[in-house]
């Protein structure tokens, strides 16, 4: 795919990350994660450990993080599982980055509900701010990816940026979010219109008495 991320040269990657090891804090966290699973089932910890490793790489590089091959192998060795089994997990889920990304990883949902509700406008806003699918901006701030459904269809179109969702987007609101992030300002997380989570815009339209101050949780006045 033309917009696929560029995976770095393996020799360079091994030279930089071949000596990867957990920080003391993450080593303790890894032990706690592995301890959640019964004896003989420690390999089930692969997903949270991949996430932990990606976050450690991100902290070291001041980015959203990624998973160099030696880092994945380090986790495989710790869990005593074949390297290929770890690669299979990391390459299946878009939550894992297989190449370096910027400080902000902008993941735009392009699945049908978001497409019908205006994801093309979201992509246009990104493009006009210099973001290109599969690439990182020259200043290292933004990486843009198109991903499949992120589970907020009622609030389409939406994007996930690092750990946060931004929903009910328009060209203008997406542009404003990118502007805020570029100057270090935290934009409003969640819906960008007047509604709470996925509730109706403007507040409840039915069963309004259920939110009355005089109506208790048992349904009694």
From TrEMBL:
Highest taxon in the source lineage: Bacteria
Needed co-factor(s): [2Fe-2S] cluster
GO molecular function: 2 iron, 2 sulfur cluster binding; active transmembrane transporter activity; inorganic cation transmembrane transporter activity; metal ion binding; monoatomic cation transmembrane transporter activity; NADH dehydrogenase activity
Cofactor annotation remark: Binds 1 [2Fe-2S] cluster.
GO biological process: inorganic cation transmembrane transport
GO cellular component, one term: organelle membrane
Keyword Iron tagged: yes
Catalytic activity: a quinone + NADH + 5 H(+)(in) = a quinol + NAD(+) + 4 H(+)(out)
Binding site for [2Fe-2S] cluster: 109, 114, 149, 153
Keywords associated with the record: 2Fe-2S, Iron, Iron-sulfur, Metal-binding, NAD, Translocase
SUPFAM superfamilies xref list: Thioredoxin-like (SSF52833)
Span of the signal peptide: none
Pfam families documented for this protein: 2Fe-2S_thioredx
UniProt key word Translocase: yes
Family classification: Belongs to the complex I 24 kDa subunit family.
Protein name as catalogued: NADH-quinone oxidoreductase subunit E
Native source organism of the sequence: Sphingobium vermicomposti
Lineage: Bacteria, Pseudomonadati, Pseudomonadota, Alphaproteobacteria, Sphingomonadales
């Amino acid at each position: 795919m033309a917009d696929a991320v560029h995976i770095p040269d393996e020799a360079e990657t091994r030279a930089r990350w071949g000596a990867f090891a957990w920080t003391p804090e993450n080593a303790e966290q890894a032990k706690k994660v592995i301890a959640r699973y019964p004896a003989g089932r420690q390999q089930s910890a692969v997903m949270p450990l991949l996430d932990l490793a990606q976050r450690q790489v991100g902290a070291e590089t001041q980015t959203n993080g990624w998973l160099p091959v030696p880092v994945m192998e380090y986790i495989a060795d710790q869990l005593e599982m074949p390297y290929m089994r770890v690669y299979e997990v990391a390459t299946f889920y878009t939550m894992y980055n297989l190449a370096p990304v910027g400080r902000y990883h902008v993941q735009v949902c392009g699945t049908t509900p978001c497409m019908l509700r205006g994801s093309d406008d979201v992509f246009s806003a990104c493009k006009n701010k210099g973001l290109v699918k599969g690439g990182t901006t020259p200043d290292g701030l933004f990486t843009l990816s198109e991903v499949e459904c992120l589970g907020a269809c009622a609030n389409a179109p939406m994007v996930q940026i690092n750990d946060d969702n931004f929903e009910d987007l328009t060209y203008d609101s997406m542009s404003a979010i990118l502007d805020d992030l570029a100057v270090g300002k935290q934009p409003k997380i969640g819906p960008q219109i007047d509604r709470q989570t996925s509730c109706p815009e403007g507040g409840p339209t039915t069963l309004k008495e259920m939110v009355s101050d005089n109506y208790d949780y048992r349904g009694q006045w």
